[in-house]
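Supplementary Text 2. Reproducibility record for the structural model of the 334-residue chain.

All settings were left at their defaults, and a single model was retained for analysis rather than an ensemble. We include the record here because the model underlies the residue-level annotations in Supplementary Table 4.
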Amino acid sequence: MPNNFEFLHPHFLWLFALVPLLVFWYFWVGSSSSKASLKMGSSKALRMTSSLRAKLHIILPILRLLAISTLIIALARPRTHSVSKKTKTNKGIDIVMAIDVSASMLAKDLRPNRLEALKKVATRFVNQRPNDRIGIVAYAGESFTKTPVTSDKDIVAKSINDLKWGDLEGGTAIGMGLGSAINRIKDSKAKSKIIILLTDGVNNTGFVDPFTAAEIAKDLEIKVYTIGIGTNGTAQMPYAKNRDGSLSFRSMQVEIDEVLLKKIAKETNGKYFRATSNTKLKSIYEEINKMEKTEVEEFKYYNYNEMYRFWVYLAGLFLLLEILLRFTVFKGFV
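Retained model, structure tokens:
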């Protein structure tokens, strides 16, 4: 029986318990009571071979039983159903990811480097947010909007994949990165507005004060999650550009302004994270994904295909056939 088949009123199927009683009545009680007897000195002269019609008249009670059985099935209302689903987002979230693309993001303490590790994790994060709009801001010594807030995840994923060092002036302008992200999301009509700010250094340039930007975010009810990316201690970092365009690396001390990042997060009711490895970076984005859940309401629509009419027609056919046979072929035998 298919999974989408059901009886609307299955309790009527208990009526099948009466069918054996009807069988007993028709074939034993009814047949014996209808038999007539005639006493004669000798029956040899009246002995006759039963005709085929006399033998087949048993089909009449069988048709009656079949009609009753099919009517019971019709009363139980057999039907099949199909289900269609529709989802409605009750609480939309707009997210802007402000990503540091300064030269230090090429450090090799994360594999293969910080920027490539971040791109992989961020793309996974985007794909896990099908009901949200996401934008991308890139910053170093200056900032620019890579992708406005959009629901097109393919565009967002491509923007993340295209992030690279060298398109912006050198330095780390955390205030400008945060400011650009605020400008991208401040006019959003979403019930929840989130900025994920990632950096691997110290604010050392730019004309926007990070604390001022954090206060603006707070006033606009924008929550900022800050992430400091980089191992504890030293890492292989680029320090010079060779004539062929390649970079030279050497071991350098990792410096992240955790005090600043923690204050920005606290001021905006967000949270600060430290990503010291690929695994830790992945777990941070998974934690943010769990904390900022979009409320989705699912509606199910059921389409029913009623089958009881077929059984009613079949019962009528059995009854009609019984009546026709009773008053034609088997007339005089019942």
